[in-house]
Request: fold
Amino acid sequence: MNNDLSTALATLRSDPEDGQALALLAAMKPGDATASERDAVQVALAAERAWHTDRENVEPCLRLLDLELAWGQDPIRRATLFVEKARLLHREMCEWEPAHACVNEALEIARNHPAAVEFRRALEEEEAGWQERADMLVRQADEAGDSPAGAPLLAAAGELYLRYRPLTSEGEAFLRRSFALDPHQRRADVLLERLLRKAGRQRRVGRASPAA
Reply:
């Protein structure tokens, strides 16, 4: 099992979408694994997630978190992993409802888990005031005119719309406006790329330089 795991993880470093490696990982189940085997798998998965985190490979991190949750048994550890997943879903994938569900799952596993309690409060506070903040950001961007200074403001507004109004087109529109003002606007670039990839659509504008 360890050889198969090591092979799959090494493959995913070079190609995070490799179908064979993903299938191999999905087929690995805790089953009758001993405690030491579970621990070894969890250590390997956590180390690999840290590698992908350093490179901002969000989708592989989410897959690895799901695997860690499948292999983990300690309730505090599993609750912590759910909070980590919630943070990624909220911050990087702009998926508020799945993020909130993960936090609730953490609190079902470990009642009053400090990080889960704090993050749920932050989620609810942001959700309550997102529209007012988005409107303010757009007004400030409009006041900046065609200046690149408006790009981060529009990117932030687009991010809020993606998160709280995912079925509307405003989020993508604001990200595209941001990118048009400043082709090196990194946040707009990353979020737009993820949005289009999830929808199976092609990018119609160039990407920012990685050094931006």
Summary: Confidence is low (pLDDT under 50) at residues 208-212.
